[in-house]
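so my prof wants the structure for this chain in the tokens format not the other one, which i didnt know existed until like an hour ago. anyway here's the sequence
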Amino acid sequence: HTGRLPPTPHALRARLANDRRAKRAMHAHDMLYHALADAPTLVSAIHCNIVLAALSDVAEWQLALVLLEHMATVSITPDAYSYSAAICACARADEPDAAVRTFKHMCASDVAKSTVAFNSALMACQRAGRHSLVVAIHTLYSLELQPDAWASGAAVRALSQLGQHGRAFALYESLEPSQRGAHAVSAALNAATRARRWDLAAA
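here's what i got, hopefully its the right format
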């Protein structure tokens, strides 16, 4: 039971944020839907994002995706944070397919691309051992933005684990210096070793 709704958007935001801090994700979820039904003018993307983050904290991925979809039906446009929180919920629940679908939906929308969302989707795939998905989503993202060092390393490692050691090292060599973090270097060395390219491993 959520009780009486706060009287202003600011007060609603404070109540939802307090629920998140107290790890009362379901209470925040129910209060938000109460407000959407009885006082929709109180609710904006900020309020939805707090609840999405609370749901992500407890890996309630299905509820997060339902809320993300519901936002559009009540004329609240999801932003980069909305998508990132929903994708994080999928990643924490070990649901890589849902994470990738949501990331692709984000890419198809007018929302600015988010490194947090991308890395979360990539992490979900990596944890599930879905190496081909790691490569596919890395390629999708790199068409518009430059993946960071962690993401680049994940893609190099995924190619190596798929047995595509030459492609793995070629990807590493194509990276900018800022993308060649310890994770990428380790993955590239592993690819060179697996390919028995001792010349590359020593480079």
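also thought this was worth mentioning. The chain has a mean pLDDT of 89.
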